[in-house]
Design goal:
single chain, mainly alpha
Length: 121
């Protein structure tokens, strides 16, 4: 299973790296959404390193989805990198304001995140 995900991630990164478009195309958006989903799933499964890897791939691919930054920040917190986590929380907030908060279901995505972690967001 891990090899399959690693292979898929390598293919995904290759496709993203080959693109020269300044903004993600429709196909890229689908791929970035898939990476977000894999990252969020890994986070909820408490596989924080895998969550970080998938979400970082989405960031490097040009994702403008605030949820990507929020979940990567949460993963970073659990990996013992609170300063980096704070930077991701701030970037997520900037993107959330820029998109008006209507484009992405942020509240729904974060409803399972509770306690101190949620307060930091």
């Amino acid at each position: 299973m891990c090899r399959k995900l690693a292979s898929w991630r390598l293919i995904a990164l290759s496709v993203l790296a080959a693109s020269t478009l300044p903004a993600p195309s429709f196909g890229q958006e689908n791929l970035l959404s898939e990476l977000y989903g894999l990252g969020a799933h890994a986070y909820h499964s408490r596989d924080y390193a895998e969550a970080y890897a998938n979400l970082t791939a989405a960031v490097e691919g040009g994702s403008r989805d605030p949820r990507v930054y929020y979940f990567r920040g949460l993963a970073l917190e659990n990996l013992g990198r609170p300063e980096d986590a704070q930077l991701d929380f701030e970037k997520g907030a900037i993107l959330e304001v820029a998109t008006g908060g209507d484009q992405y279901p942020i509240g729904k995505a974060l409803e399972r995140v509770q306690g101190v972690a949620r307060l930091r967001l």
